Amino acid sequence: MIKEIISSAEDNMKKTVEVVRKEFASLRAGRATPALLDKVTVSYYGTPTPLNQLANISVPEARMLVIQPWDKSVIPEIERAILKSDLGITPTSDGTVVRLVIPQLTQERRTELVKVVKKKAEEGRVAVRNIRRDVNDVLKVKQKEGVPEDEVKRGQEDLQKITDKYIKEIDEMVKSKEQEIMQV
């Protein structure tokens, strides 16, 4: 019973780390990646649709994205959606594809991005710790219900090891993302 509770907590922590990883992928660090456009939604015949469901997104060069929509009539909407997004990139179109040239980051912008990375990482760490706290509360209730104390203690120790593991994973992701951002 305790093992299932711990296992469930570990699954939730894994999901939290994945969310942080996706957040980091959507931050641009001077290099083009299709993940930059994950949050862009296009009004497609009046329905907000994720851009990656309307077009093929490729990276022909290190700092360029090419968006090839399957329906060419949606190109103006794609351009509008990109301009509205918080990417700060102006799209160019030749009627068949939309090109996004990722500008070189300034030192000021890099420092801002590092702050954003650290903030998102801290949110992830807090989420992991909240999972730990909730599970510890459940374990205390189980102890009151008659589960042996040593079993509960073992569960809490396992839970702490798992928590440390995922917090360390988030810290490592922060280090690598920070290096990626500060790299000129």
TrEMBL record:
Localization (cell): Cytoplasm
GO molecular function, one term: ribosomal large subunit binding
GO CC annotation: cytoplasm
Annotated ranges, domain Ribosome recycling factor: 21-182
GO biological process, one term: translational termination
Record-linked Gene3D superfamilies: 3.30.1360.40, Ribosome-recycling factor
InterPro entries hit by this protein: Ribosome_recyc_fac, Ribosome_recyc_fac_dom, RRF_sf
Primary site of residence: cytoplasm
Alphabetized UniProt keyword annotations: Cytoplasm, Protein biosynthesis
Function: Responsible for the release of ribosomes from messenger RNA at the termination of protein biosynthesis. May increase the efficiency of translation by recycling ribosomes from one round of translation to another.
Name listed for the protein in its UniProt record: Ribosome-recycling factor
Lineage: Bacteria, Bacillati, Bacillota, Clostridia, Eubacteriales
Gene field: frr
